Amino acid sequence: MKEYLCLSLTGKASEFYALVTDKRDNLSFVNIVEKLVLRFGYKELPETAKIKFSNATQTHDETIDDWADRFLTLATKAFRHLPANYMNEQVVLCFCHGLNDKEAGESVVNMRPKSIEEAINGLCILMVLCLVDLNLFPKTLLRNVSRSNLLEMKITKNPN
């Protein structure tokens, strides 16, 4: 198994592997992987990750799905040592508050979603209602709308 690991490494990781195994030939696969993780693994301080998570907002050109993916990555780093249910509560609330459209985010929070997926579905419902209300979306076409189509749309607020 160790031999296959050697073949999959490149650059500095390959050099590090050679140094570690040259000194001690009897290292197990698990020991080598642990040493590689210590040397090259994720090193950001938990406090820094939490600050990045807390300050994150959706960028202007970022779709809802892209924002959710980026936000979940930040959350995983910020809460890597905490229980999943605590992380989930924080993620849903902060995801909604980080949306570009603050009104939509507040409306979705008031729906009390239990997950990011529920929050995104709530956003889709709001988008359809907004489009129908503005007469930009014929009610007869509602049955043909997919979540992915809605998430790619850009809605501009009615100036009235």
What report would you give on this structure?
With 160 residues, the protein is an all-alpha fold. It has 2 domains: 2-40, no CATH class; 46-152. Helix content is 65%, strand content 0%. The chain has 9 helices and no strands. It has helices at residues 2-8, 11-23, 29-40, 46-55, 64-78, 84-97, 102-110, 116-133, 147-152. Mean pLDDT is 77; it is low at 137-145 and 154-160. Residues 7-100 form the Retrotransposon gag domain. It holds the Pfam family Retrotrans_gag.
The number of domains:
2
Shape: elongated
Unreliable residue runs: 137-145, 154-160
Mean pLDDT: 77
Beta-strand content estimate:
under 5%
Q: Helix segment count?
A: 9
Through-space gap between termini? 67 Å
Give the beta-strand count.
0
Sketch the major β-sheet.
none
Task: Write down the secondary-structure element order.
Answer: HHHHHHHHH
Which structural category fits the helices and strands? mainly alpha
Q: Helicity, in percent?
A: 55-70%
Protein name: Retrotransposon gag domain-containing protein
Organism: Dreissena polymorpha
Pfam families: Retrotrans_gag
